Amino acid sequence: MLFHSFYCDNIDARIVALHKEACNLVGLNVQYHATPIARLEQNGISAHCAHGRWMERLFDAQEEDLIGFIDIDCIVLCPSIVDLVEAEVGKNDTAVGVAQCANHLPSRNIPYAAPAFMVAQQSLWDRLGRPSLVANAEMDTAQSITMACLANDMEIGLLMPEGHSPEGPSWPLANAGSFGIGTMYGGGKIFHLFQGSKGPSYLHLLEEQVHQLRIR
Question: CA–CA separation, 205 vs 53, rounded Å?
Fold first, then answer.
């Protein structure tokens, strides 16, 4: 299946290069969507808003059964996790994503399937009534998918965090632990750097994961 990765062109080029190398090493098929930050600023559009609108366009245009999303600072360390997630999505007619909480928003106590790594059925958005995927004062980007699934007693799959680097900040995942810089998901098969757009402070954590892929 095809994954899609949205990022703004002002991100550290080393992160993009490491992401592409990691995906090549594990055989993950990714289409990259670099967005000029200057154009967004000229049009008064935030990167968060652009991300959600981009997801809506992809859902709307998708013809295949499954669609994947992956952040530019999130990498797959073992392709078997993709097979497992695909199977769960097909079995439950839903979406599966890494679990996060929007701790700065009123929905902070509800873990949701985040598009940092997400696989969904193409038709899911339609079945949910095509809710806006744009971040707002209540929910983060694409959090509405989880909220709509919960409201309609539909399945939603969450890959729970299994630990994170002691470096940098971390955030509570409601009453289900925490996530932070350098979080592992899916039995150690997905690594999310988090805050890759903040600069090179934690770049070495991503470099270490890609190095391990090289020497396997």
Answer: 30
